[in-house]
Recover the amino acids of this structure.
């Protein structure tokens, strides 16, 4: 039974002649020993023949004279409306998740780039700063000692 379940999907390609040689030999070997699969293959062939016969009869009975003229007449009667325009959410709304993801990836890339660039900076040896010329904070404060900002300047 398990082998029949494996053969049934291969019966259509077997009938069409589309099976590779190794599968073809395996299916033929199974069909020689299994009457059920042989009957199923005969049913598939009969269904295909019946469909071909019905479709060819309908195709022969169909009248296509003047078909193109009838189609053009229907198309000519249709009035063309104003051109359709898509702005804003109609155009971009369907893709907003993709745009948000792309923006997030771009932001993450910028952050990673700036982080790696700042970690590669070399620090220069610090030199002593020159003393300022004018020290406005050296005057005596006129406020309470708890306040560190002077109120007078020189």
């Amino acid at each position: 039974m398990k082998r029949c379940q494996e053969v049934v999907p291969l019966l259509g390609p077997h009938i069409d002649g589309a099976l590779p040689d190794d599968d073809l030999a395996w299916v033929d070997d199974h069909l020689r020993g299994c009457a059920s699969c042989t009957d199923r293959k005969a049913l598939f062939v009969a269904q295909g023949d019946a469909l071909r016969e019905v479709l060819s009869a309908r195709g022969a009975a169909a009248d296509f004279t003047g078909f193109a003229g009838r189609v053009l007449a229907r198309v000519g009667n249709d009035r063309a409306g104003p051109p359709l325009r898509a702005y804003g959410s109609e155009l971009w709304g369907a893709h907003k998740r993709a745009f948000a993801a792309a923006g997030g990836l771009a932001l993450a890339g910028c952050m990673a780039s700036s982080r790696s660039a700042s970690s590669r900076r070399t620090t220069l040896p610090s030199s002593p700063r020159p003393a300022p010329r004018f020290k406005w904070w050296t005057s005596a404060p006129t406020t309470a000692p708890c306040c560190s900002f002077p109120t007078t300047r020189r």
Q: What stands out?
A: The mean pLDDT is 80. Residues 67 and 73 are 10 Å apart (CA to CA). The helical segments are 2-16, 21-33, 35-61, 67-77, 89-92, 96-119.
